[in-house]
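Fresh eyes needed here. Have a critical look at this protein's tokenised backbone.
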Amino acid sequence: MSRWKVWIDRELCVGDAVCVSFCPEVFQLDEDGKAIVLKEIIDENLYDCVKEAVDACTAACIYMEQID
């Protein structure tokens, strides 16, 4: 089973919550209104929603890298 590491460049985040709308299991907004990652390591079960969030992010600040 493949796994990916997910992270956000919070300096680029504009807090529009697009990522949360696509994948609330992995992303949420913090008290500053910026996105945070709830699950840094995901598997195939969450890949599609994270990929959609990456593609839809208006700030292009979400990254994912396959780790195995």
